[in-house]
Amino acid sequence: MGPDTVPDPYRWLEDDSEETRQWQAEQAALAARYVRDSGQPDAVRESVLRHRAPRFADVPVQTKSGWFRSEVVAGVTRVVVGREPYRDERIVVEFPAGEPGAEPPSLPWFAPSPDGEVLAIGICRDGSEHNQIALYDVRTGARLPDCIDRVLHDGWVGGVMWLPDSAAFFYLALVGPLSDFRQEVFYHRLGEPAATEPEKIPLPEDFREYILVQISDDGRWATAVAGRRAPVALARCRLSATGRAWEPFVTVADSAFYGHIVGDDYIAVTTVGADRGRIVSVAMDSVAPADPGTWREIVGESAAVVRGTTRVGKELYVSEWVDTYSRVRVLSPDGAEVCRLELPGKGAIGEQAQPLMQLVARAGQEYFVFPFATFTASWGVYRHDRATNRLDVLREPAVRLDGVTVEDRWATSADGTRVPYHVVSRSDVDGRPDRPTLVYAHGGFNVGLSPVYQMQAGVIVDAGGAYVHAHLRGGGEFGLAWWNGGRRDRKQNTYDDLYAVAEDLIASGTTSSSALGLTGFSNGGLTACVAVTQRPSLWRVVVPRVPITDLLGAFRSSYLSVTVREFGDTADVEHLLSISPYHLVRAGTGYPAVYVDAGANNPRCPPWQARKWAARMQAAQAGTAPILLHIWNDAGHGWATPVEVEIAQETEWLAFALNELGVRL
């Protein structure tokens, strides 16, 4: 069977035609009206505002002249700088809303130069994350005349990557039509015309992944780290006044090798010979850098999963996960443990979604500054001073849940694998088999689902329900084998893990199918779509958010054709059909209540994916439960969605879920 022979009755909804846009608008209006008429949207909005906390921590970036951070205050997006974090700050640049009732532009990234004299930002005006570089004089706030017309896909590699002399930077930009998702690295020197030709970095043919350029503190070396899920420092360059000649550096297959340039060495986390990661060093001028026999091991593999390293002075701060929770150790250059941080609770330090994104943090800082959260406290920001071994609170968590307990549990999947999950609930609410319960899961792309505060947890727990945070195979919680155990031909393990968690919740008397809800975001949205089509009777309500649903159709999109290789390729049609939610829909099935949430300007999970699945589900529904779709204008994948739009989204889907679960606020 080939992809072209598979029935595709809603292919017309892939087109961005006037007919499709009208259908989409009617669906959104229907969803909004249904939720409004079901009652309590005002009460849910109040709870959302009360429990809302930043999705990403507001961590300041240190330069020689001060600490920079971005914020949105009273409808104004701005970047500020202070001599100390969050103190004595002044505005460098700000963007009020352009028109009455309009949202200000979002800044997917900001990057001050090392000397703190120039601020580079990415400006996005439609929630898509597509942005363009703008440069500002920090002292005057005046925009510099440098004109870089190229569009950046997002801020996943930090926007611009400054050289230590603050006179130039590298950046990763789209080339050709935006929909082609072709990115190249460019070099820009302040005051000069924008480059017309990309850097000549040796990469695999037709490479469409992300590339992060790292520069040594002394400006002598650069590396190009490629790939989101298992990054590898593929190329190196000896920087000089006469030019930049890139050459291959470390080339390893099906493994990760990423870290930082430290002096004349590259200090890397690698899964070569270590499923859960180890830390090694290779000389930047090594004649055989790709040969693991030339690497010097600094930290060997252990039961902990190594997540990343940050250099502070001559010491390494190593972030690890132990049974899903964070641990941070400080190591000397030879790998000896100097101390362990006394973290402010049982939770996780802030990490970006995928390993490559974590490398954006600047190395060689004076202090280790990090965000930290637990299931019951949102992001706080902390600073560790090695000289005094003291942990200072720079910013308290914005939200705390009092009188709440967290239970660490394990379920057993179909093949006998133990799957961890956590149950968050109020201490004063007695357990009962019909307690409203919402499961949140992801399970893909080597993304570790950190055990941290989520706004939806605050809303449902405060209302007397239970919130469940599940760690499924396909994620990065337990190393390479955990990821590989839930991808490609083993992808069904991810969904079996989820069903094991749900069945364990029911068997333990925590809840029942009539009171069990499920939600997930991005790949978690796909997971939710699979779950409702494979096991419809297991759930009372399911809310897939920005999902991919048509794994075969995804190969017609340049971006998605890279993404869905996580699940298989076009030669694996039978396998893809077994896990593709669009193709799993069966006419005449009684499905539970479903609310599909997506963004109209989403370049990662385009809205047609949600449209097709929702339409097919509506046509197939034999039960009485609603199947709703709301695609939001001025919204994308959530990284650059305007604040008011985000609040409206959160209010509507939570109101729908709470109503279906019988929760009254």
From TrEMBL:
This protein's record includes keyword Methyltransferase: no
MF-aspect GO terms: oligopeptidase activity; serine-type endopeptidase activity
Entries under InterPro entries matching the protein: AB_hydrolase_fold, Pept_S9A_N, Peptidase_S9_cat, Peptidase_S9A, Prolyl_oligopep/macrocyclase
Q: Name one Pfam family in it.
A: Peptidase_S9_N
EC main class here is hydrolase
Any idea where the Peptidase S9 prolyl oligopeptidase catalytic domain is? 457-662
Q: Which GO terms describe its biological process?
A: proteolysis
Q: Keyword Hydrolase, does the record have it?
A: yes
Keywords attached to this Swiss-Prot or TrEMBL record, sorted alphabetically, are: Hydrolase, Protease, Serine protease
Q: Which reactions is this enzyme annotated as catalysing? A: Hydrolysis of Pro-|-Xaa >> Ala-|-Xaa in oligopeptides
Question: What are the GO cellular component annotations?
Answer: cytosol
Source species, domain of life: Bacteria
Q: Which residues form the Peptidase S9A N-terminal domain?
A: 3-355
> What EC number(s) is this enzyme filed under?
3.4.21.26
Its recorded name reads prolyl oligopeptidase
Species this chain originates from: Amycolatopsis pithecellobii
